[in-house]
Amino acid sequence: MPVVGIFKPSKNGGWDGRICTLSVNTRARFMPNDNRRTGNAPDFLITSAGCQIGAAWRRQSTRAGNKPFLAVQIDDPFHPGPILAALFPNDDETSANLVWNPKTDGVAHEH
CA 44, 68, 59, 28: dihedral to nearest 10 degrees? Predict the structure, then answer.
C-alpha cells in the first residue's frame, strides 16, 4: 500500500501533515470531532485550507498487536469515489503514515 501522507501530532489532539496523490497535494489536518451526536459519527474531521475534505474513525487492528489506527475517507472531486485509506501512528506516536490501497473493496484495510 502506498504512503500518501505523513502526519505529526497537533496540539489539539489531532494530526497535521500533507496528503500527496496524483491529483492531490495539500496540507491537511485531522481535527477531533467534538460534536459527535451518534455512535457512528466520525472521530475526526479532515480539513484542508479551511474546507472539510473527509473524516476518520478510530479502529483497532486485528493484526500487528491490536494497535489503534484511523479508518479514513477523503473526498476528491477528481477521483471516481472517496479515497479510502488508513492512518497508522508509529509506536511512539511522534508521526503517522497515511496509506492507501487502490484495490480496496470499500473498507480501509489494516496493514
Answer: 30
The pTM (predicted TM-score) of the whole model is: 0.85
Question: C-alpha grid cell for residue 43?
Answer: 472521530
- C-alpha 100/C-alpha 83 separation (Å) is 8
- DSSP assignment of 30-94, as one string? EEE-TT--STTS-SEEEEETTEEEEEEEEEE-SSGGG-EEEEEEE--TTSSSPEEEEEEE-TTSS
pLDDT tens by residue, 36-79: 989 899 999 999 999 999 999 999 988 767 889 999 999 877 77
